[in-house]
Amino acid sequence: MRICIIGLGAVGQGVAQVFAMKRERIKKDYGLDLNLVAAADSRGAAICGDGLDPRLLLETKRNSGKVANYPEYGVPGISSLEVLDGVEYDCLVEVTPTNIEDGEPARSHMLKAMKNGKSVVTSNKGPLSLFFRELVGTAQNNDVEFKFEASVGGAMPIINFAHETLSGCEIKSVYGILNGTTNYILSRMAKEGSPYYQTLNEAQELGIAETNPSQDVDGIDAACKVVILANSIMKRDVTYKDVDVEGISRITPESIALAQKEGYLIKLIGEASPDSLEVSPRLVREGSPFSVDGTMNVATLKTDLADDVTVVGRGAGSIETASAILSDLISIWKARG
Amino acid sequence: MRLNLVLELLDVPGQLLDALNPIGRLGANIVAIIHQRDVKTERGTIPVQITIEGDKETLDKVLESIEESGIQIIQVDGVLRKEKVTTVLIGNIVDQDVKDTVDILNQLEGVMVADLDLKMSDQPERSASKIIIEAEYGRKKDVMRKLKELGSLKGFLVINEV
């Protein structure tokens, strides 16, 4: 399968690294050859019909900051849309940064690929939480596969899990800790009784929270995931604007102490249920599946036949997220041959 | 017929006697009592399991009489009669009139504020309060919705259970 990656940030680099690690194994196990024919970042691309070397690609990106410096096959200045027009490929891996304003440039990348008859795998929450129906509809009309397991919960299986493993069940509602950064901050505050801003600063120093932490701590990231889950596994038709969002910046050590006295922890919970679509700090029982520490993600799916099913996994990290993208690629291969 | 009850008693002398009194007086029989004074609920009350026997009319009167004496029946034949709703509010609850907040909740049918715990902060708007509400079975969602309304009215961050 000829693969084109757009976006070489943490996730894109993770995908390249996973290709390097797993290419032989996957060829042997599934007969799928992960042939990376193009990789583009915002300043150019590396293109080679016979396949790029993912290790060399990573080295080039890390050392020089741009893939266009890839020996012999680098193309400086070419735009990602031009790459999609000019390269022969089968599947696009769209891993540019999430843009929650208008979903661009990822939305255009994905639509172009689909209209050209290419399958798409993405981790990008922006277009999924703003234009879900458009993207799914375009994929269907053009008879291509569209997979986005990596967009929710990183390595934690949830979307394909609901569609495939729980395929006979109706998913009535989903509750989850869908953002690792806020879970890390709240866990530390509970353990150490430290105030919010101090804990946030520590998380930033450790690289767990970003310099501009708003997407995480204001609940935006979790809200996007709620939208994706509601649309994809509960067959709703909602967008980011339909979610009630409250972040964690108002949480105090005093409130956590009061909750703990009663056997509860405070966690940032995303809920997609018939009554409500919201992200807010909630009380969860100590010792319950939701009392996970650190950057872990957890989600409970309430179903009609199987009752509650809970999944836990690493919600972030480049290799972890790339593992979900790899699963999507393999399942497209299995479906399409 | 027989009924298995779980009552919630305050840890003060005479409570068990008060609870048992109407059973004999109204003509029902006590089949079993499990009372462990050192096992307490989070609120410091003592759960007592009692099995009583009698005809339906008598047993109905017994239940009524026990509740009238102010003793909580939390389970009848394994079915919970009350649900506990715990919530934490962040905001200037003292400035926003604690009594009014409690009154608004108590005005809901079948709902009672059972416990209130305050933790003040040097910045009043960062103060936290924990409220435990007892609601009739099935009212939990209503109570949580009302709490959210109260929060937006008074500028509290409401942290409800999942």
Task: Describe the protein's topology.
The complex is a heterodimer of chains A (337) and B (162).
Chain A (H helix, E strand, L loop, with lengths): L1 E5 L3 H21 L4 E7 L2 E4 L6 H11 L9 E3 L3 H7 L4 E4 L11 H10 L3 E4 L2 H6 L1 H10 L4 E2 L11 H7 L5 E7 L2 H13 L3 H10 L8 H4 L2 H14 L10 E2 L7 H9 L2 E9 L4 E9 L10 E8 L4 E7 L3 H19 L1
Parallel strand pairs in A: 1-2, 1-5, 5-6, 6-7, 9-11
Antiparallel strand pairs in A: 2-3, 3-4, 8-10, 8-12, 10-11, 12-13
Chain B lengths: L1 E8 L5 H11 L3 E7 L10 E8 L2 H13 L3 E5 L2 E2 L1 E9 L7 H9 L4 E9 L8 E9 L3 H15 L2 E3 L3
Write up this protein.
The complex is a heterodimer of chains A (337) and B (162). By secondary structure, chain A is of the alpha/beta class. Chain A folds into 2 domains: 2-155 and 318-336, NAD(P)-binding Rossmann-like Domain (Rossmann fold); 164-314, Dihydrodipicolinate Reductase, domain 2. Helices cover 42% and strands 21% of the residues of chain A. Chain A contains 13 helices and 13 strands. Chain A has a 7-stranded mixed beta sheet, with helices on both faces. A 6-stranded mixed beta sheet of chain A has the order 9-11-10-8-12-13. In chain A, strand 5, helix 4 and strand 6 (119-122) form a beta-alpha-beta unit. In chain A, helix 1 packs across helix 13 (318-336). The mean pLDDT of chain A is 95. Chain B is an alpha+beta fold and 162 residues long. Chain B folds into 2 domains: 2-80, ACT domain (Alpha-Beta Plaits, 2-Layer Sandwich); 82-159, Multidrug efflux transporter AcrB pore domain like (Alpha-Beta Plaits, 2-Layer Sandwich), CATH 3.30.70.1320. In chain B, 30% of the residues lie in helices and 37% in strands. In chain B, the strands form 2 sheets. In chain B, strands 2-3-1-4-5 form a 5-stranded antiparallel beta sheet, with helices on one face. In chain B, strands 7-8-6-9 form a 4-stranded antiparallel beta sheet, with helices on one face. In chain B, strand 7 and strand 8 form a beta hairpin. In chain B, helix 1 runs antiparallel to helix 2. The longest helix of chain B has 15 residues, at 140-154. The radius of gyration of chain B is 19 Å and the shape is elongated. At the A-B interface, helix 12, strand 10 and strand 11 of A face strand 6 and strand 8 of B.
